[in-house]
Amino acid sequence: MATQSSKGVKPAKGRLIALEGTGGRSMAVAARQIERRLRQEKLPIASSGWDASDLFFQIAQGTRGLPAPPPQTLILLYATDLAFRLRWQIRPALEEGITVIAAPYVETVIGFGVGAKLPAAWLRRLFAFAPKPDETYRVPEAAVPADRRPTPSDSFIEFCLTHLRGGPASWNTEEIRSGYTGHLNRMESRGKSRVAVPR
Amino acid sequence: MNAKVSTRQVGEVTVIDLEGRITLGDGSNLLRDELRHLISTNRRKILLNFAEVSYMDSSGLGQVVAGFTTVKNQGGQLKLLNVGKRIKDLLNMARIASIFEMFDDESAAIMTFA
Amino acid sequence: MAAAPVRSRRTDRQLHDLIRAREQSRGLLIAFEGPDGSGKTTQRRLFKNWLQTEGHQVVTTKWNSSPFVKPLVRARKEARALSPEEFCLLHAADFHYRLDTEILPALWQGETVIADRYLFTGLARDAARGLDFGWLLDVYWPLFWPDVVFYFSVSPETSGKRIAAERLPSYYEAGQDMTQMDDSIGSYTSFIGRVIQEYEALAKIFHFVTVDAEQSIDEQHKLIRSLFATSRRRSIDRFNREVLTAWLRSHPKA
Question: What subunits touch chain C, counting only 3 or more CB pairs under 8 A?
Fold first, then answer.
């Protein structure tokens, strides 16, 4: 699906930058900040966001009154959307030498799964189809101003917590949120991600 | 040329006029946001007009595919107008050309919406 | 938004005791597996009717049927927009949803659940699409084991003939996304061979009860009844404790 480069020479592959976090406008602002910085280095760059496949938008349009899905189902739906993003957006762009900011990418959903008490090792194996990013950034929740809080329509985490809260099963959503945040905190403390503060 | 998206109503059909480069980032996001807005406001008969599209990459095509599933999911119809050769080639490469109804004439396209 | 109230939690010990106490009264999970055209659905209906005359409370769950995920799959199949990975992940999402909201609640209430296709259908079809088997097991993890799996074995030729006699197979059913053939019958004949190969391997690995689906309907039904009568329920403790424990933790009213 990649278009041909104008000189017939295959460009060097682009870099994949993961931007993890709860999502929403703050994530979009942080992504644009990273884009601006990289454009100064004359790098072609673009962003791939959550729900490019419209899966979650379609769920929100049509599943009122149904039992809430368990975390496993939500994670598999995220994986489906990520497979779509890789196929139509991320891989073709990387092949064209474009640097792609994937916001969010894999650690966000792994954090959610860890918060829901699912094994991290299993989550990593499930998402092994996604190429490893060259760099990872994280938008810390504390850096998000009140007027930019993510909503279920622009955040995978908020979408999931809203659904789990509303269902008949008993999910401690604050515990899930805390587990998710803990996962991203651990990544940061191990030097596996850098902070991106949206300004 | 930066992407632009505008809409107009022709009877029950909403025509989305796409302009410029529909690529990863602003272009495909504009298309996505417009389609979602239309679905959220109960518009179900949608015609995508490619007459002024200068370029579309696979992410733009992916957005068209996602939009098609969104409209179908709501029992609606999404059709394509003025699809140039380059975009037709993309659709053929992705083996999805046959799922879309494509037209070169707007009036003829409008009349086919049930 | 305020956090949901924390309901009192059962301890691991309590859950363990609860599961053991329910071992004999919990419902049975019986899976009917096999390629299209194997007559599986006919046998499933006959078996359900018979079980009901024997006094069982029976519910049926079908592949790709949850109201939550099915519309998403349908729209994407219509668009022919699914890669093998997306096809796999969506069907697995539907499976996990039904497991959580239909299958486990019914079993816990003592109802017999007949699954018209179970996770082995996903494994067979997705492996036939070239996906790594180890990864597929992770997609369907944690595996919840049925008490019995009836596998309807049929040759690709018989399957193809039976399907062609009824209807044209759909795009993904015919494997046209893989064969890239325009002719759906030709594609089906080619693709179903791969699917059956995967089923046959699964039947050996997971000890399915194989039924020769080339026999008459009546012979198959009699055989299934007698096989069922001699089959034993799987111990939850040994096979399914992890899944049931996790489900009970999130469903304290069960």
Answer: A, B
Entry pTM: 0.94
Residue A126 vs residues A63, A94, C85, C132, C148: alpha-carbon distances, Å: 26, 22, 11, 11, 27
Report chain C residues whose CB lies below 8 A from the CB of A83: 83, 85-86, 89
Task: pLDDT tens for chain C, 254 residues: list them.
Answer: 333 334 457 888 899 899 999 988 999 999 999 999 999 999 999 999 999 999 999 999 999 999 999 999 999 999 998 999 999 999 999 999 999 999 999 999 999 999 999 999 999 999 999 999 999 999 999 999 999 999 999 999 999 999 999 889 999 999 999 999 999 999 999 999 999 999 999 999 999 999 999 999 999 999 999 999 888 788 888 889 999 999 999 898 88
Q: Pick from C68, C89, C250: which is nearest to A169 by CB?
A: C250
Q: Given 3-state DSSP classes, what are the helix, strand and coil percentages for chain C, each rounded to the nearest 5?
A: 55, 10, 35
Question: Residue C209 sits in which domain range?
Answer: 27-243
Domains of chain B, with CATH numbers? Answer: 4-111 (3.30.750.24)
Residue whose pair of structure tokens reads 């942080």 in the numeric block: A30
User: How many domains does chain C fold into?
Assistant: 1
What is the Cα B41 distance to its own chain's centre?
17
Report the alpha-carbon distance of residue A149 to residue A157 in Å, rounded: 12
Q: Are A110 and A193 a contacting pair, CB within 8 Å?
A: no
Q: What DSSP element (H or E) covers C78?
A: helix C70-78
The CB density around residue A173, as the number of other CB atoms within 10 Å, is 19
User: What domains, with CATH codes, occur in chain A?
Assistant: 16-195 (3.40.50.300)
Q: Does any domain span residue C10?
A: no
Interface test with A, best of B59, B61, B71, B74 (most A CBs within 10 A): B59
User: Any idea what the CATH number is for the domain that residue C167 is in?
Assistant: 3.40.50.300
Q: How many whole angstroms separate alpha carbon C126 and alpha carbon A96?
A: 30
The CB density around residue C45, as the number of other CB atoms within 10 Å, is 15
